Amino acid sequence: MAKQPMLKFISVERDMPEKREAGVRREDFHEIYAEYASAKAAEQASRCSQCGVPYCQSHCPLHNNIPDWLRMTATGRLKEAYEISQATNTFPEICGRICPQDRLCEGNCVIEQSGHGTVTIGAVEKYITDTAFEEGWVEEIEPIADRAETVGIIGAGPGGLAAADWLARAGVKVTIYDRYDRAGGLLTYGIPGFKLEKDIVMRRNEQLERGGVEFVLNCNVGEDITFADLREKHDAILIATGVYKTRDLQGPGSGAAGIVRAIDYLTASNKASFGDDVPEHEDGSLWAEGKSVVVIGGGDTAMDCVRTAIRQGAKSVKCLYRRDRANMPGSQREVANAEEEGVEFVWMAAPKGFTGDPVDGVIVQRMRLGQPDASGRRSPEPIEGEEYTEEADLVIKALGFEPEDLPTLWGQDELPVTRWGTVKADFRTGATDMDGVYAVGDIVRGASLVVWAIKDGREAAQAMLERFDMASASVAAE
Ligand code: FAD
Ligand code: SF4
Ligand code: SF4
Question: What keywords are annotated for this sequence in UniProt (predicted)?
Answer without folding.
Answer: 4Fe-4S, Iron, Iron-sulfur, Metal-binding, Oxidoreductase
